[in-house]
Input
Amino acid sequence: MWSYYQTTITKNTNIPDKFKLSAKVYEELIHTEESLIQRLILEQFTKDLPNVNRTANGLVRFCEKCKLVKPDRAHHCSVCEACVLKMDHHCPWINNCIGFNNYKFFVLYLLYSLIYCLYISITTIKYVILYWHGGKFLILFLFFASLMFAISLISLFCYHCYLVLHNRTTLEALRAPVFPSGPNKEGFDLGKKNNFLEIFGNRPELWLLPVKTHLGNGYNFPRKIIDEDSEYLLRSIVYDGDGESEGMSNDSYTY
Ligand SMILES: [Zn+2]
Ligand SMILES: [Zn+2]
Output
């Protein structure tokens, strides 16, 4: 219930102001019909932002509805009517977006729901057997409902474990993010251990609790970069010191 509550109430729409176009820049942008000039305005605005991702056409990712430059991995959710940091998907079951701030809670919610459904189905088996010898019908319903939910939760949970270990969101699994070198599904992959730590943090005693332990700030993600000699280098993450990224575990988030 705690994981469910945390997943439901945590919002991911806290896009920092520096991504939002000022009224002046926005006016300039909409009053220009020349697409090359629009492109230059957005490129100029993005110059000081940590953005790496572009659209498939190599353009700055811009949200017309929110009037902002989308941070890397952020997408506009048409249900929430806002841009969502590291958007995974909009979940109709909880009527909230799953993204940077509540992804850990969501994975824990799947885990605990799965354990709960398995517990119910296993502990009702003996009564289901009794049913054939004159037991209550309701127990059959309980058994099959919990079993069906357990089966669907197991596949969803396993899929999200895969995504956690590969540092990929559901949206990125469907369409690879575009980097200067081109689209790359593995663009944010830092190795299984680091991928896990990015979402669950580096305090094992808090991994199973739905409390905030994820690393980073939601818009500047460390990446592996392949240099000319094809050797892997790790880019160290640069924080802006704007306060919001200062968590309990930032020190260990520098690779
Ligand atoms: Zn938007
Ligand atoms: Zn949404």
